[in-house]
Each structure stands twice: as C-alpha cells, then as structure tokens.
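Two proteins follow. First one:
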Amino acid sequence: MDRPIYPPVVLPFLLFLLLLGFLFFFIFASAVNAVFTALGLPPWTAYALFILSLAGSFINIPIKTIEVEEVRYKVDTFLGRLYPVRIVEPASRKTTIAINLGGAIIPIAISSYVLITKAYGWPSFLLASILMIMICYSFARVVPGVGIVMPNFIPPISACFIALFASLLFGCLELAPFVAYFSGVLGTLAGADLLNLKKISKLGARTVSIGGAGTFDGIFITGIFSVLLTTLLV
C-alpha cells in the first residue's frame, strides 16, 4: 500500500496555525489582565482571576430544576395530502437552570468589588445599568436549540458609550471604565438572560447555563471589551 504524500508546505502551515493560536491567546490573556488591573485589582489577583475564569468556564453550578411542558405533534396524510396538525400527547421534561463559574459568578464578583470601591459614583452606575438592561432586553432573541442570542458587538459598544454618557453627566469621567464594566455585566446578565428565563420552554434545552457557552454567553466577554473600548476613548 502506497504511503500518502503530503505537500512540503503542510507542516510549516500547521506550525504557523499553532503559533497563531498561541499569539491570539497571549493577546487575549494580556487584554484580560490589563482590564482587571485597570479596575483596581492587584496584578497577581488579575492573573489568578483570568486562570480561574478559564477553568471556571467548564463549571456550571445548578440552581434550580423546573418541569417544562412539551407538546408533541404529528401530521396526518391521506393520498399524499396533508391534513391539519393535531396534538398527540402532552409531555413534560426537566430543565436545569445553572450559573457558570467563569462566565457569570466571577464577573458578578468583580462588579460587586467595583461598585464597593467606587461607591461615590453610584448615580452613574445606576443610570448606565438601567439603560444597558433596556438595550440588551430589546435586542435579545430566543432561538430554539441555541439559546438567547444577541449580536456580539451590541453589548460592549453600548456599555462603552453609555458609560461615557453617564460619567460625563454626573461629572466623573474617570469612572467611565468602571461604569462600563459594571453596566456591561449587569446589563447582559439581567437584560439578556434573567428577563428571558420565562421563555425557557421555547429553548428546547435540558440545561440553561447563565454565562456559560451554549444557552447563554457573553457576560465575561462584554465586561472585558467594554472596558478596553472605554479606556481607548477616555
């Protein structure tokens, strides 16, 4: 049997892809650590939180299990013609609501730290959060089998400009990155996730993970990129 012959460029191309992957990971890790440091966290804490966020993205902590009614249908046919759909039997299945450690719990903890350390800017935090919740709720859509989805660029860009507006309005522009992170996390969590939990029956998922990959995501990423954008503009 003849051995397969590979073009001489295959190995260099694979090495290039591997190097490119490491490069993107290094850039992303540096950006995350820069954001955590900009939020007032010590460098060693920033690195620890980044590693914990990566590891925690695989950990979903169950909160509640609910029963969702599921109606099964079938279509009758006769001589090639379709007849009205009729209900066969109602059924129920269990859906577990969970919260992701790296994608939700850690961002919430950091947001709490930001709010406590910058409590004097609470009007900016409050206004920006309300506006972000309204925006995220209006753009979030239920996609069966996928989850609650929203264009990826809307939360971080909205959080950035809303934070700048709220900070300027209350005369505390230096707080804009902090307001962007807090409102970005809270807005995505409440506006896109929590306010849509009532639509769980339309998702067709056995597990709903808030902040986790799959049904819900974007809380962690929104917090990071909103701060980066705000820092570049301030």
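Second one, unrelated to the first:
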Amino acid sequence: MENQVTGSAWVYGDNVDTDVIIPARYLTLIDPGELAKHCMEDIDPTFATGVKKGDILVGGANFGCGSSREHAPLAILGSGTVAVVAVSFARIFFRNAINVGLPIVECRELAGRVKKGDQLRIDFGKGEVFNETRKETYISQPFSPFLNDIISLGGLVNYTKKRLATPSGT
C-alpha cells in the first residue's frame, strides 16, 4: 500500500450507518463496481456519479454503525475512494473495512474542520492527515506494520493466502 494518498474530500456527519452507505435493497449485488453505483445514494445522490478515483470519504463520529455487512466498505472501495477518515468508527465497520482492504483512519481532530472538496493528504505511516486547502495537520493513529500488510495485500483473505503460501508463515 502506498504510504500516502491525496484526494478530494466528501464530507458527511455523525452516525452514517451501513444502510446509508449501501442501502439494503442492493445487498443482492456482490461486485464492488455495481455496489459503487448506489454508494451513499440515500444521503447524497451526487456521490456515486461525482466521486473520482482517489477521493477520500470523511465522516464524523460512529461512521459505519448499524448492520454488519461487508457490502458497505466494498461499495466505498468500488467507488474509487482511497480511504475513509472519521472521528470514530463503529467497531464492525472498522473490522469489515480492514477485511476487504479499505484504508480507514480514525482522526478525532478533524471534526468540523474539513469541508467538501478540501484536498487531503493522508500519511498512514506517520499518522497524519494534512488538509492542503486549509493548511492544517490533524494527528491520527499510524498504521501498525500488521495492519499495513493486510490492507496493502487487499484484505484479510489475500493476507492469509500469502501467509499460508510462505513456508515460514511470515
């Protein structure tokens, strides 16, 4: 995984639940590209058609609350979004995002300070989110080597395959 990503911010508030990220009526879909066509449509009908590869989704507190479904981070990945930064994540969304290889960053300092369209740069290794538009730096938790390995390989399944294929298991 690249240690840094830069993109335009799509900003949402607190308690964005998985039913808003990908409405339940689309849970019969499994292809991330198809899911992406409906990502965020109940909260922001412009997201699916306006998001560009490399953009960054920004949320408030408790992002990804609600039902446990891997469809939500898959839809975000399928949209071309390179990371999600939020004040905090619902635990199951956090785990599902890691499982599918979606980089997520918890950053309490960005609450209310990022606006839609701001250009953000995330340094996963340093644990920093830099708002290039506002010239502000927000501190986050850097990725551990273990988490970085999982995400860089595209998720837990690929990480496990690699470990099983390596004689030493590393």
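SUMMARY FIELD: The chain has seven helices and seven strands. Residues 4-165 form a domain with the Aconitase; domain 4 fold (CATH 3.20.19.10).
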